[in-house]
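User: Okay, second chain of the day. Same drill as before: sequence in, structure tokens out.
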Amino acid sequence: MMSDSLPGPDPAPSGTLDLKALYAETEIGALLAELDRDLVGLEPVKRRIREIAAFLLVVRARQRLGVPTQPPTLHMCFTGNPGTGKTTVASRMAGILHRLGYIRRGHLVAVTRDDLVGQYIGHTAPKTKEVLKRALGGVLFIDEAYYLYRPENEKDYGQEAIEILLQVMENQRDDLVVILAGYRERMEVFFAANPGIRSRVAHHVEFPDYSNEELFEIAGRIAAREGYRFSAEAEAALADYVARRRTQPNFANARSIRNAVDRARLRQANRLFQGSGIVDRDMLITIEASDIRASRVFRD
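Assistant: Same drill. Structure tokens below.
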């Protein structure tokens, strides 16, 4: 349950409260700093998350000083293309809500339609309720939420899951935050068909696609985390790869770039094995242009 016993400084005798001190006590600044440090780009998203955090901090201050305040609606919608960091930001949001005292545990449960909707009569309700039980006290992240609604199939059980979800979003909103995610256009259709859900979602966050430069930086970070680096020629090939790949079907932003780096590592390993067999440290950590340009992206 939402608690008003959030750690922080006691109100001064004059009835004032230091927001900066309250902010420091919650330690949400560390989470926001992690968001800035760990995620490339996404400046509009980071700004929106900071605004939500500031708003919720002020709500806490109002409650502390006895200002009449309605409990804030915390359910959210994250829209954008695949691979733009929605799940990562949802996880950080769970931590922020926990440190502000709005959820008990601060964990994230990420699911899709298959985790909620059954394939036969009587199967959906137990599945949905089990997921909700696991998510209580934290954040439930439903990716591609619009797949819950399939009006073209009259035997589909997604509507049953939606009705159960609606009840919990309303009746247990002080113990569960739901974040719905997916393509913006499809989410608009979903909300139009389910106005009850739209009315319960207070915060909408749009995730932009990454630029070529940001995708290049993401590739470098991914490689570095695995103990690799790109040669100068490989960097040029990578920049070419990014420009070509983002124009092709099924491009998924950072997800596609991560897959590209993984495949480059495989090609590097095969190249070294097929060579003389004699390697040094520099050879083991360096991805060359040939490891990038062997991609089928360049065959077109």
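Confidence is low (pLDDT under 50) at residues 1-13.

User: Thanks, on to the next one.
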